[in-house]
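Supplementary Note 3. Input sequence used for the single-chain structure prediction.
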Amino acid sequence: MKKSKLKIFFVMLVSIFLIMPIAACNHDRMQTVKVAEVTHSIFYTPFYVAIEKGYFEDEGLNIKLTLTPGGDKVMTALLSNGADIGLVGSETSIYVAAQGARDPVINFAQLTQTDGTFLVSREKIDDFSWDDLKGKTFLGQRKGGMPQMVGEYVLKKHGIDPHKDLHLIQNIDVANITSAFASGTGEFVQLFEPQASIFEKEGRGYILASFGEESGRVPYTTFMAKESYIKENPKAIEKFTRAIYKAQQWVEKNNAKEIAKVIEPQFSDTNLEIIEKVVERYKKQQSFAANPLLDEEEWNNLQDIMEEAGELPARVEYGKLVNEEIAKKIME
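The predicted structure, written as discrete structure tokens, is reproduced below.
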């Protein structure tokens, strides 16, 4: 009996030593890609689906994800080689180009195609009109960022001058906007999910309108990298884009409940019911891009919004900061 157990132990030990080199070999073949995301949000659902369902691993990529709050910080990480790929608003690539960067940051895969914020009021309004905002205190987003620019664009579209018709607050850090509204600042606020839905569930706020539905399609959040990195790592960029496209297709085909279950590990502090509700809301307004292609119409719409907000340094031709060939190749 003892000899039998010893034999089994010996076989198991040999098996382990045989498996270890194979595992090590597979690990060595994995290429690490450093990704800096501007925020960690349900708004980026297809990206987390790609992570949770192992689509990057299937492509031989090991994603090292770092939260890098602020578009300027993501750009700094890219330009200093602290990150290989950035997930951030496309406007940041225009700002960098305007500063005369020799190695421009190129948009190569789109993730979201609408604004992701919502207009939330402190009091319930049954028959809402945008005119209800006039003369009120509005807690907006950071100046120069896409949420703020889209917010102003939509307000002007409805005949409201945000700097004349509102008591506009823009000096609160993005991370503190939610807590500022919760503590009593402002009668209206521009919020991302899930904060908007959480406030509504708790009876502390009411969603009145979607800035994403009001502003139309824009390359709101894209994956981008330095031109030199794309040239030096074409296979990695293609693999990365393929994983994203696969996730985008999966999100398109599945319902909010199934999607919420997949990304739940990414949002352990958020109730699954809220995750599902947020995913459903973003799917309904088609915020998640169905494919990674950033088209020229969206690019021009982005610049129109930036110009309207007085934040566009100069118009940039579509082909200078957008690489459409990678997405097209993957989609074929």
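The first helix runs from residue 2 to 29. The longest strand covers residues 105-112.
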